[in-house]
Fold this sequence. Notes:
The protein is built from 29 helices and 20 strands.
Amino acid sequence: MVSQDTIINKLRELARNLWWTWQPHVIELFRELDPVLWRETDHNPVVFLDRIPPEQLVRRASEMALISRIDYAFRRLNEYLENKDSWGAVHASTLRSRPVAYFSMEFGLHESLPIYSGGLGVLAGDHLKSASDLGLPLVAVGILYAEGYFRQALDAEGWQHENYPYNEPSRLPIEEALAPDGTPVRVAVDTRTGTLHAKVWRVEVGRTTLLLLDSNVPENGESDRALTGRLYGGNAGVRIRQELLLGVGGVRALFASGIDPSVIHLNEGHSAFAGLELIRRVMEDEGRPFGEAVRQVAAMTVFTTHTPVAAGHDRFGSDLVEENLGILREQLHLPFDDFNGLGRVHPGDHNEPFCMTVLALKLSRHANGVSALHGKVSRQMWHPLYPSRTEEEVPIGHITNGVHVLSWLAPQMKSIYDRHLGRDWTHRMRHPEVWSGASEIDDGEFWETHQVLKARLLEFVRQRLARQAANRGAGDAEVAPYQRMFDLDTLTIGFARRFATYKRATLVMKDAEKLAALVNSSNRPVQLLFAGKAHPEDRYGKEFIKEIVRISNSSQFRGRLAFIEDYDMNVARFLVQGVDVWLNNPRRPQEASGTSGQKVAMNGGLNCSILDGWWAEGYDGRNGFAIGSGRTHADPRVQDERDYDDLIAALSSQVVPLYYDRDASGLPRKWIARVKDCIRTLGWRFNSDRQVMDYAQFTYLPASGGQPCEMPGFHT
């Protein structure tokens, strides 16, 4: 007889390693223990297990015959952790003693650890998960935000309001990081205004480890204790201090934890100060002058830029830089002007602010954008930093983003793939031939599975809309219609992302009468689902949301268009797994990559997108729909007009007719054929296993001292 303590301990160990987040059988295990409580705790197994009395939990596990499944899940986790036969063990074994250190301002691993805002964080989370699956030696560094990004609520007029609930550490899947001698890891960074202190937490993500810095410690004053309160909150003074903690404090946390990395990967410029701390260590430990130390550190540093918009790069005034990094500057033996010149395109221009991306580019020898088009845009943007080279010779290549398949693939779709893509396809998903089996999936089986996922999405939307209305004070009579909205047989289009202005969330609504005619067609109707958050300081983004809500409440669009509040990874899963079409209409070429559409592609939906980011290299004419031909115009207003016309043309002449073209059995055969082409041509290319392997081959191994390898788009 298995003891109560044994069962509880196994469940707690499963909950403390985020491996469970991409294991459907473990997720289902938690859900079956108490479905209602699982929803109420936002799928957080740490809180979930704390809320159930041990005797009740064990009784429930016994009644539901779950004990053997708990044992199975526990064995699977340990087999996974102990497996030495991995891709990384064969191809990246040189990193075992000195791993890659991956720095990012945010990590989107699961909604139960809310330290992310959007695509950058989810990309970082997927990177960690694939590094774990591949067995690539990697440790990550980030920040534990006490209040995360924000929870979104809309008022009756559709105006966004931000709420910041406190993330109690005991309710998160984290534990204190310990030094090799068993003492808790603490770091300190000296500044002109005093010493900044932080504790360090540890998160297990399969076989990878994430270290999170937390400034909410008694040694700090009130302002510094609040420093790690909110992601992307506060003024420039808060931002530079957060980035100081991430970069300099993050390097110190690694070494205090007994980790001496051979490669530093800066995921965006926020962590560029890490390079300065490494230079200081080389100068101090090896007695090298600054110039030699720079060359040594740059050779081991990989930098990924994600921002093709000039305003998106962090910049700070020289006084603010001196206030926070002046002591470090003195330790590097650099004069004030020389130090500030490290963050300037034109070092002698005292009016130019200190740019984190410029610093990252100067302190790295391996730099890349996140799609082929973004690599080109980045070379154009940063050409002035390399005046002696042609634009094509600017040393910025590209590694196109991908998504972690098992985190985003619906279990129902995985069951189909298990039968048609071959044995162990999840370990070989980066190979094109693996996905060729998609062509053999029975049309009826495929469509039925998609409809099940779509029905699940629509029921989720109905419940969320009813809850949103009730939260705004609506009575039962007003709430009831939401529970009957939306139709399974209607073409359903999803649009969900950060509400930055360049993403043009309201483009499809430019002409309300045309949109009304499209969605209210008597025989070929359309319904649209929107979700996303605007930055708290982005009034234009908030106006977009307000406009969508206003239109959704009008008589022309009620029941055909809706906005889902509080977009997070849970909402994203429902959307990408259930929509028929994913709409993406950024102003080209401002979408660096985008990954949400990649999640839709693997789940049986189609993309309808501007030829920007990853879609510019993924679209082949048969695996989705293109909005326009990739033309751009110098005048944004003209470009918006053209793109709107192309969007409406794509929807009315391609998407809608193809979806409603049915055979005698009611199946949209041509639509299904296009979806299969989508899966077959995109699945192998746009997954994060391929992405992480590209980083290993083109950057990590060369940076760690292996043979140099030219990455795509990099020309010497």
